[in-house]
Amino acid sequence: MQERxxxxxxxxxxxxxxxxxxxxxxxxxxxxxxxxxxxWHMLRGDPYVARLMGGVGLTxxxxxxAGIDVAGRIEAVGAGVTGFRxxxxxxxxxxxxxxxxxxxxxxxxxxxxxxxxxxxxxxVPMAAVTxxxxxxxxxxxxxxxxVLVNGAAGxxxxxxxxxxxxxxxxxxxxxxxxxxxxxxxxxxAHVVDHTRQDFTAGPERYDVILDNVGNRPLSxxxxxxxxxGTLVANGGGSPGRAFGAVGSMLRVIAVDGFARQxxxxxxxxxxxxxxxxxxxxxxxxxxxxxxxPVIDRTCALADTAEALRRLEGGHTRGKIVITMP
Length: 325
What we know:
Strand 10 (225-234), helix 7 and strand 11 (262-266) form a beta-alpha-beta unit. This protein has nine helices and 13 strands. 26% of the residues lie in helices and 24% in strands. The protein has two domains: 8-124 and 293-323, Medium-chain alcohol dehydrogenases, catalytic domain (Quinone Oxidoreductase, Chain A, domain 1); 127-266, Rossmann fold (3-Layer(aba) Sandwich). The strands form two sheets. Strands 1, 2, 3, 4, 5, 12 and 13 form a seven-stranded mixed sheet that branches. A six-stranded parallel sheet has the order 8-7-6-9-10-11, sandwiched between helices. It has 325 residues and is an alpha/beta fold.
């Protein structure tokens, strides 16, 4: 639980009342919850402009229990809920998922694929849906296209490489030295080690770039696209910035009005939009063998603050998952 905005140390492990549900909600006994950059942005109330946009809280957190990715078993359903019953194993979105019990709506959950552990299932919702939207919905990737994924070893990147390769694209993944073999194993035809090479400085041009890092100027990214290519900018920014990712997104939108190339933005997937439709799409890919979650490590609930510090450092391979007692 957090009472104020700040670094991971503001999180405290406390006993709270089990959240009550309304007629249109379900109660989930959480077995695992994954961490996302979204979580530390919400923890810090960063970027500051996001506090003015609602949902975060202006001077203190609106939601005092962190977390949004969830996997577990349904304990109870409201009178107006159909399609789920107690005992069902599910994954999806639930604000306050870093707790033993969480509540959400049925529209934000899908059944957990039988072949996944709860830890693997928790790694799916935000990262896989963001990757799906970035590659398929916004990027409109087609077979035969050349696709570059910047940040290919991260939570979104590991899913994006697999999705793009599954669509028949020729994928180039950008990552650090330690993750070259991992990214290649996920389906990347080419891997660029960013510690040795700047992918925007070479002669290669791409049909679609999914930028999960935001560490290259927009002008350099555009230079790396073909004249009619598509840039999908996912987030960016860092703690302490007034505008952070929002400022990056606004720059992309502004330039798009004058560019022949398609410059698009995508913020990390949240419960907004067709969440269940996208969750069903990614779980279908998992069940068909075309998508596998990558887990950096699992941690106990008491170690969440330390896990968030690792995530902020940007050195994770796939997802960090928190397991519940």
